[in-house]
Amino acid sequence: MQPTQPPTVPPQAPPYYPYPAAPATMGPTVINKRMVFAIVAVGLLLIFVAQLGLQALRLGGAGGSAMRALYYTGALIGTGGAMLGALASPRTDGNQKLGLLILAGFLILALTSRAF
To answer: N or C: which end of the chain has fewer CB within 10 A?
Structure first.
């Protein structure tokens, strides 16, 4: 009697791994009123701190230059936030857009005038 051989298994192809799915793309970012308020509030807070540092503490030299930089940075952030809310937010109505544009105008006026 001959020894029995184990049954042969036909070779299989390697497992199929599909290409990874493309990551889901993000939809358009909606700029809500809370985000606009926070950006404008940060800008106005920086302006307030700079004015407080220059007027109340009578900082001069490097401190005065740092406070001026803080003032200009706050004015730019506030202007950017107001313009962002007025022009890019789909949820603001006409009166809110007008108010934000006026606020941006006042902040640009603060940037260009000699407040110090």
So the answer is: N
Burial of 82 (0-12, 13-18, 19+ CB in 10 A): buried
DSSP letter for 50, please: H
**Cβ-contact 104, 83 below 8 angstroms:** yes
- C-alpha count within 13 angstroms, C-beta hemisphere, residue 17: 2
For the chain, report the end-to-end CA distance as a whole number of angstroms: 111
Phi, psi of 28 (to 5 degrees): -65, 140
pLDDT, one tens digit per residue, over 41-77 is 999 999 999 888 888 777 777 778 888 889 899 999 9
Task: Write the CB contacts of 50 (distance below 8 Å, at least 6 apart in sequence).
Answer: 67, 68, 70, 71, 74
Phi-psi region of 66 (alpha: psi -120 to 50; beta: other; left: phi over 0): alpha
Amino acid at 83: M
Give the pTM: 0.68
Q: Is the pLDDT of residue 19 over 90?
A: no
